[in-house]
Amino acid sequence: MIDLRVPLLALLTVVGVNALAQTPELSGAWVRAMPPGQRMTAAYLQLRNLAADTITVVGVSSDIGMASLHETRLEGGRSSMHAVASLDIAAGEVVSMEPGGLHIMLMGLQTTPVEGDSVPVCVQTSEGDVCVDAKVQRAAPDTHNSHDHH
After folding, report:
1. Where are the alpha helices (DSSP H) in 61-147?
2. Whole-structure pTM value
3. Which domains are assigned to the chain?
4. How far is CA 44 from CA 32, 67, 103, 105, 132, in A?
5. 133 pairs with which residues across the strands?
6. Beta bridge partner(s), residue 49
7. Alpha-helix runs per DSSP H in 4-132
8. What is the mean pLDDT for each group of 10 consecutive residues in the chain (150 residues)?
9. Rounded to a whole number, what is the distance in angstroms from the first to the last CA of the chain?
């Protein structure tokens, strides 16, 4: 009798590694801390496409409330937010979600996450979902030298 367990395990390992390469790598994830009682906030992170082809972000989710992809734009001297239905990320490209630009809106929160908490955030792509725990904090991790303390 032929033992197929080793070749099958090798095939599953290769398929698993290839599947992981098709999803974006998420890093630098954080959620803006808000005063108690706020029912919305935003999440920020970087997505790096490790795949050889373009991938498409088709949605976002979090178990703390509704989530959707948004972009802040300056139009006619006024800042406005617009929903983003999908986002293409070319092979090797890094997309940064940051205050004043592309971000994940978290709405309808049952409880307001407090500074130091972790919030699960998932990015749904054409190749599968990728999730990360985002730390709740008052400002972006690299803003200690910023003069924008309003």
Report:
1. none
2. 0.80
3. 21-137 (2.60.40.1890)
4. 8, 12, 6, 9, 11
5. 120
6. 24
7. 5-21
8. 47 42 84 95 97 95 97 92 96 96 96 95 94 96 51
9. 73
